[in-house]
Amino acid sequence: MEPTAKARVLVVDDHPLVCKAVSQLLNRQGDLACCNTVQSAAETVPAILKHRPDLVLLDLKLTDGDGLKLTALLLLEFPALRVLVLSQFDDVGFAEDSLKAGACGYVTKRQTAGELMTAIRTVLAGKIYLNPKISAALLKGPELVKPPAVNGYDPLTKRETQVFQLIGVGLRTRDIANKLNVSIKTVETYREALKQKLGLKNSPELTHFAICWMERQPTGGNIR
């Protein structure tokens, strides 16, 4: 039996020492491998085309570009790619902007190596990862924790509520379809209805809103 393939991670950071340290850390893991490191936005797309990573660990601020804009560009060109932002900024605003740009998580350079590996594995598993401090700060913002179907929102149907809850615990569209025994297209239809009813502009905002709402529920949103 062939060994399980390791998940491939591309590291994008303009600090050579960070690239080297993270690369060595990844290559010591049994389930992860650093497929390449690059130090600029300009090198990122060619590196993805060449090395086909499963995840891009992306510095928020690069010398030749903005990590937020690069995140949006990468996901436009590579929709299946997962992006995890690695930042020196322990700031709720940057985390929120990263999620809105489409990143699957936000981790800071002040966190431990073990926490970084947990963040990478969480995102690779199809879930959202947030620095615990950032997550707590996000929940303090009243505009992020309004429950659905109140404050002027159209009421959600039972199925829309189920989809909303499953988005909030980090499941992706395919996983939700499997859990509810419906087609991916059906789940996408529910997602569009949720965005319209909740007044959200795009899928990252829906995911962000659902996660924040679910995390503040005493029983995790009472998923059924």
Description:
- By secondary structure, the chain is an alpha/beta fold.
- It folds into two domains: 7-139, 3-Layer(aba) Sandwich (Rossmann fold), CATH 3.40.50; 142-215, Orthogonal Bundle (Arc Repressor Mutant, subunit A), CATH 1.10.10.10.
- The protein has helices at 16-27, 44-51, 67-77, 92-101, 113-124, 132-139, 158-168, 173-180, 184-198, 203-215; strands at residues 7-12, 32-38, 55-59, 61-62, 65-66, 82-87, 105-108, 129-130.
- The strands form two sheets. A six-stranded parallel sheet has the order 2-1-3-6-7-8, with helices on both faces. A two-stranded antiparallel ribbon has the order 4-5.
- The longest helix is centred in the C-terminal third of the chain and has 15 residues, at 184-198.
- It is globular.
TL;DR?
With 224 residues, the chain is α/β, with parallel strands linked by helices.
SSE topology sketch:
Elements: E1 7-12, H1 16-27, E2 32-38, H2 44-51, E3 55-59, E4 61-62, E5 65-66, H3 67-77, E6 82-87, H4 92-101, E7 105-108, H5 113-124, E8 129-130, H6 132-139, H7 158-168, H8 173-180, H9 184-198, H10 203-215
Parallel strand pairs: 1-2, 1-3, 3-6, 6-7, 7-8
Antiparallel strand pairs: 4-5
